[in-house]
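Late entry, evening session. Most of the bench is empty. Finally got around to the prediction I had been postponing all week. Sequence below, unchanged from the version circulated by S.P.
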Amino acid sequence: MNQIKSFTAASLTPSYGPLVIPMTNDYLFRALLQRNNNVLKGLVCSLLHLAPEEVYSVEITNPIELGTSINDKTFILDIKLSLNDNAVINLELQVINQQNWVDRSLSYLCRSFDSLQIGEKYQYARPVMQIGLLNFTLFPDQPEFYATYQLLNVKNHSLYSDKLRLSVLDLTCTDLATNEDKACQLDCWARFFKATTWEELHMIAQNNEFIKEAAGTVYQLTQEERIRMECEAREDFYRTQRGIQDMLDESAAKLEAMTAEKEALEAEVAMLRRQLGLQE
């Protein structure tokens, strides 16, 4: 017998049960931040270590029409933001490791920086930040929860310019969050995007009003059939991509094993030739 889900009066979200759409769904991510500007502001403040009063405007400059049909060619993954009518932010949630994030993020960063109009002076170039929320570890040999990169002198590490910045939030490494990360509640946001049940969301939202508001907006979005269908289409896309990646990984592993076996046989043959006094 199916139980009727209860609702909390404050947030109008289910009090328990699995989420209809995973929070790592990039369509849901875009819809959430586009639908609720206050949630967008809260996330940006955490990512940039800003107090809410320091942000008087944050605007998505490449909005999409929510609920319209999209495909992988037409869906714009990165969210372009204008912060306080000055800085430019590229924000993206990346679920699958396509082995191209470093070059891709650099491309987004440089493309956004090169935005001067004809006749404008170079010193008027706006600061640009590329921020990736990744559901995988970018550098497995150097895992880090929240890493930021800038242009530095290779000898004395002095800053060349503060107008270019790359940041990566690893959603899989919340255990590596520093005290500074926790003070900005970045660990809370990471757990929010990794949550799979309403119980988890409500627990995370207890001490963060922005996340509490985000949970309510997520529920509203997933009740809209057209948006839910687009989110489900993205989930189908992820499954296909993961299947392809698994096959590629399996093929690479077989090729590596065959190469190792071939090298071992060649070494054995070379040793036998030496023992028989044959020339190589």
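Two things to note before I forget:
The chain is about 45% helix and 15% strand.
The longest strand covers residues 159-170.
Will write this up properly tomorrow.
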